[in-house]
Amino acid sequence: MKIRLLTEKDWQIWNALRLEALQNSPESLASSYEEEIGCSQKEWEDKLTKSDVFGAFIDNKLIAGAGFHRLNRLKTMHRGDLFAMYVMPEYRGQGIASQLIETVINHARSLVIQLHLSCVTNNESAVKLYQKHGFKIYGTEPRSLKIGSQFFDEYLMLLELK
């Protein structure tokens, strides 16, 4: 497996993986398939240039991804977000998510002093994975996401890097 930073030239493979993630795990991502299916090539390219998105590849196939975004206001530049963590179901349980998280953490260390993420409270395996990498729950956002008539709470998690 190889992990690398995606560029705007990777927009099509990122688009495909992201849309799959939105269909397979809609409660795990803040956006929706309906919102992103209509995005243009330019919008997909912009997503890859405005944030740092890392992709995991096996045999040149993108099978997982995770993003990092640094907050850009003067008072919040010390913070970053880990977002859009997704591994294709057939590749789960092989340590790929751990390697992606470590890649994002190592990347973030030179840019921010704390890394945030949110995770639905009922995704116990993801919560345990993040905790394994040092993230701590510091709060719960009730009814953070709504899909149809169902609400999902999210844990707010933090990793202090310095």
Strand and helix map with partners:
Blueprint: E1 2-5, H1 11-24, H2 33-36, H3 41-50, E2 52-58, E3 61-70, E4 79-87, H4 96-109, E5 114-120, H5 124-132, E6 136-147, E7 150-160
Parallel strand pairs: 4-5
Antiparallel strand pairs: 1-2, 2-3, 3-4, 5-7, 6-7
Helix pairs in contact: 1-3
Number of strands: 7
As a percent range, the share of helical residues equals 25-40%
Shape: globular
How much of the polypeptide forms β-strand, as a percent range? Answer: 35-45%
List low-confidence stretches.
Answer: none
Quote the distance from N terminus to C terminus.
29 Å
Biggest pleated sheet: 7 strands, mixed
How do the SSEs run, as a string of H and E?
EHHHEEEHEHEE
Strand order of the largest sheet: 1-2-3-4-5-7-6
What is the residue-averaged pLDDT?
96
Structural class: alpha+beta
Number of helices: 5
**Spatial extent as radius of gyration:** 15 Å
At a glance:
The protein has 162 residues and is an alpha+beta fold. The chain contains five helices and seven strands, in the order E-H-H-H-E-E-E-H-E-H-E-E. The longest helix is centred in the first third of the chain and has 14 residues, at 11-24.
